[in-house]
Amino acid sequence: MSGIVETHVTPAPKDKSKVKKLWQIAAILAIVTAIEFVFAITLPKGVLLYTIFITLTLVKAFYIVSEFMHLKYEVKVLIWSIMIPLIFVVWLIIALIYEGGNL
Amino acid sequence: MAATATATEETGKSLWQGGVSPLKASYGKLMMWFFLLSDAFTFSGLLIAYGYIRFSFPAYSGDPGAFVPSQEYWPIPEMVFDAFPFLHGIHLPLAFVGLMTFILILSSVTMVLAVEAGHRMDKKDVEKWMMWTILGGITFLGCQAWEWSHFISGSGKVGWGIDLTGNGVIDFVGANLAMNEYGPQVFADLFFFITGFHGTHVLSGVILNVIIFYQVATGVMERRGHYEMIEKVGLYWHFVDLVWVFVFTFFYLI
């Protein structure tokens, strides 16, 4: 912290396996999106299709949160303090969609 | 930071006596997580409202190909969002939104690669990947601007529009907050609110990314000795991507 000193940091070498894994997850996310897209225009609308869509969305959400946001590698207490409130939200979404259908 | 934590561990203090980061995450990251949780509640509120309102309207029961909008039932998203820039008049259901989703996912990937480069203290790589992330974000915003302007100015399809006077002539096409040609009035309201609120998040994400990119380029992070700020902004950026994944499902697919 002694003023502005021009530092030169030598970067560490690339972790090839880590980068490869990230691109693999990207491919999974892209493929799942493509599958959703194909299903949306080919399959008839209904509870079955909605269930497939929500399941695939949760698959994508899992990869984004656990790998990209690195939550999988955090302490367990942190994982649960984020996940438990969200589980209640999912319940609320399902409950109100059901209620809305009964109006 | 690391030095402090090690010192505390060596003195054998208990967790409750201070000096240890709770949940083994830095203050900034922890607070970002809690902010994102609260932001997730806000978006859930919007999506819950959407689901509730959508299913309180009758669904369109006829042949999807012969769909014509009406105030009586909820529109089919794939018939409303079937336009693609430069391909006027061709029916390409959800292709453009699919592309937008893909762009946002890609920009999320380049963000993780920036974080990874930050761990290695590789300034050049961080700059490169941050640049791609910013470009992805701006492209997404541009796509959304196109989507909005198309939605507002009208689909231009035969038989689509509102006959205000009841004389068989269509006097209104497109959409605003009070009226829309696609279906019940609240459909356009929800479209503007949900995608608009998400777009605002993307915009603020892009601004944050630009600030961080500037700091990286001027060597602020290198002098600081770590690139943790990239991780914090990265968390926000991934969250924006995550929200879009849900908006894509609930608004466009279902």
Overview of the structural elements:
- The complex is a heterodimer of chains A (103) and B (254).
- Chain A is flat and about 65 Å long.
- By secondary structure, chain A is mainly α.
- Chain A contains three helices and no strands.
- Chain A folds into two domains: 15-69; 75-103.
- Chain B has one domain (27-58, 94-253): Up-down Bundle (Four Helix Bundle (Hemerythrin (Met), subunit A)).
- Chain B has eight helices and no strands.
- In chain B, helix 2 packs antiparallel against helix 6 (185-217) and helix 6 (185-217) packs antiparallel against helix 8.
- Chain B starts with a helix and ends with a helix.
What labels would you give this structure?
heterodimer; A: 103 residues; mainly alpha; 2 domains; 3 helices; B: 254 residues; Four Helix Bundle (Hemerythrin (Met), subunit A); 0% strand; elongated; disordered N terminus
Q: Give the low-confidence spans of chain B.
A: 1-10
Oligomer: heterodimer
**Secondary-structure element string of chain A:** HHH
CATH domain class name of chain B: Mainly Alpha
- What fraction of residues of chain B sit in β-strands? under 5%
Termini gap of chain A: 64 Å
SS element count, helices of chain B: 8
Mean pLDDT of chain B: 87
In short:
The complex is a heterodimer of chains A (103) and B (254). Chain A has helices spanning 16-42, 47-68, 76-101.
Any chance you could write out the topology, listing elements then pairs?
The complex is a heterodimer of chains A (103) and B (254).
Chain A: H1 16-42, H2 47-68, H3 76-101
Chain B: H1 2-11, H2 27-56, H3 77-80, H4 95-119, H5 123-153, H6 185-217, H7 220-224, H8 228-253
Helix pairs in contact in B: 2-6, 2-8, 4-5, 4-8, 5-6, 6-8
